[in-house]
């Protein structure tokens, strides 16, 4: 069996190692450059590879192709593979049949990283032998090749779910759905929503789907679709006989005739959206039979996720917050919603079809100045130009932070929450967040 892998990054190299271990003839092809450390691993393992090209003769003879999530279906090589009827799948689909571990899969437009990290923290603190993978951390396939975990918590993007056929998590979570990556879904929101719900398409009555019952798109989907999985909703406003909710400042969870309660003030994560993330993760912990005391302790000591509403420093009584991971409007909505001081907002980057009007009421209420950090800021300026007193354009992070310091006064917050992808000026959102933190430290 010939396995061709498109993309020589973490998921590609991990799949190559697992494929070779399982007896496939493996070839890795990357249209860009393969990083030195990955190249070395391929060479040590005797895996054939190429970079900066896709040689059709070496690719179109595949029995199965694993495509890295970053490569769109519209790319010429993928189109040719599909025309030939060759299976093009994701790493998750390829790897899952090689493990008997319990799989917890987490998707959503926002909150999935925090929910994934918190779920992993809850299970690991309870002494479970649990791996973390998918969209974050070490490749899922690679971890299976090393064969060391009894369960996995996987963060799954819609791109990864697009490439599944038989994959099914025992426990699935959909944190929420809001328009994102529409450029990859023919600018049709319903296509993107359907992609997220692929997480439950193979689930049976033995499995569970945990979801946000306050989410409009999720509720709409349920009007015309069903899943066999047992449903566990969570909500900030509704109360359930089976599910998770907030009542009188207490988080309450009822699952399989068992109850769990905890005062929300003892939960380390702050903000309404994080209460939802905590309810989702705690629902998993309850399904995995984790002791109540362990859950309480883990929820009270969880540190949060880097680049997600991360407090950097307080300088001259101005708090600087790094929310570089906010790459869409909905994520920035949560960030602005959780501000309770006048805010200098750093925003901008590569727009994925954003509607900034959704932020209008929050910007009027909370934002005193806007700093546009992107190559094309026209849309942001058009929407908010008349709403805030100060609007400035900059083209690098040092200028953005220096400007923010000038515009802020005691008691204010400077918030980097770009609502956009980062590829115009930065390598990725981590690079953007790290540059912000460094620039703040240099003030």
Walk me through the structure:
- It is built from 17 helices and 20 strands.
- By secondary structure, the protein is of the alpha/beta class.
- The protein folds into 3 domains: 2-89, 3-Layer(aba) Sandwich (Rossmann fold), CATH 3.40.50.720; 96-301, UDP-N-acetylmuramoyl-L-alanine:D-glutamate ligase (3-Layer(aba) Sandwich); 310-441, Mur ligase, C-terminal domain (Protein-Tyrosine Phosphatase, Chain A, Alpha-Beta Complex).
- The strands form 3 sheets. Strands 7-8-6-9-10-11-12-13-14 form a 9-stranded mixed β-sheet, with helices on one face. It has a 6-stranded mixed β-sheet with strand order 15-16-20-17-18-19, with helices on both faces. A 5-stranded parallel β-sheet has the order 3-2-1-4-5, with helices on both faces.
- It is globular, with a radius of gyration of 22 Å.
- The model has no long low-confidence stretch (mean pLDDT 94).
- It is an enzyme of class 6 (ligase).
- Residues 106-284 form the Mur ligase central domain.
- One of its GO terms (biological process) is peptidoglycan biosynthetic process.
- Pfam families: Mur_ligase_C (PF02875), Mur_ligase_M (PF08245), MurD_N (PF21377).
- Pathway: Cell wall biogenesis; peptidoglycan biosynthesis.
């Amino acid at each position: 069996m010939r396995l061709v892998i498109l993309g020589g990054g973490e998921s590609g190299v991990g799949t190559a190692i697992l494929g070779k271990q399982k007896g496939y003839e493996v070839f890795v092809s990357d249209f860009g450059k393969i990083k030195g450390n990955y190249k070395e691993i391929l060479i040590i393992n005797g895996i054939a590879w190429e970079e900066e090209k896709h040689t059709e003769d070496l690719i179109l003879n595949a029995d199965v192709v694993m495509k890295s999530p970053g490569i769109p279906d519209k790319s010429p090589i993928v189109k040719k593979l599909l025309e030939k009827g060759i299976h093009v799948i994701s790493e998750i689909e390829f790897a899952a049949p090689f493990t008997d571990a319990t799989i917890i899969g987490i998707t959503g437009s926002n909150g999935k990283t925090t929910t994934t990290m918190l779920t992993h923290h809850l299970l690991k603190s309870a002494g479970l032998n649990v791996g973390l993978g998918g969209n974050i951390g070490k490749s899922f396939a690679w971890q299976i090749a090393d064969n060391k975990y009894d369960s996995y918590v996987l963060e799954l993007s819609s791109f990864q779910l697009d490439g599944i056929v038989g994959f099914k998590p025992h426990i699935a979570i959909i944190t929420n759905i809001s328009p994102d990556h529409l450029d990859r879904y023919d600018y049709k929101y319903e296509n993107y929503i359907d992609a997220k719900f692929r997480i439950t398409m193979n689930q049976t009555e033995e499995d569970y789907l945990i979801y946000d019952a306050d989410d409009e798109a999720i509720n709409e989907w349920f009007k015309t679709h069903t899943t066999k999985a047992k449903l566990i909703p969570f909500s900030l406003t509704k109360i359930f006989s089976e599910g998770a909710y907030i009542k009188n400042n207490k988080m309450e969870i009822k699952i399989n005739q068992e109850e769990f309660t905890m005062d929300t003030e003892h939960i380390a994560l702050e903000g309404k959206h994080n209460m939802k993330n905590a309810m989702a993760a705690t629902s998993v912990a309850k399904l995995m039979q984790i002791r109540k005391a362990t859950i309480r302790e883990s929820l009270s000591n969880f540190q949060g996720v880097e680049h997600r509403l991360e407090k950097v420093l307080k300088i001259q009584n101005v708090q600087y917050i790094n929310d570089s991971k906010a790459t869409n409007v909905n994520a920035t909505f949560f960030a602005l919603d959780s501000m309770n001081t006048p805010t200098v907002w750093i925003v901008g980057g590569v727009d994925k079809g954003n509607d900034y009007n959704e932020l209008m009421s929050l910007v009027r209420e909370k934002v005193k100045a806007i700093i546009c950090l992107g190559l094309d800021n026209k849309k942001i300026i058009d929407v908010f130009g008349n709403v805030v007193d100060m609007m400035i354009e900059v083209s690098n992070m040092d200028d953005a932070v220096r400007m923010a310091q000038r515009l802020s006064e005691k008691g204010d917050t400077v918030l980097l929450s770009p609502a956009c992808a980062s590829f115009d000026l930065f390598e990725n959102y981590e690079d953007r967040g790290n540059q912000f933190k460094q620039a703040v430290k240099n003030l």
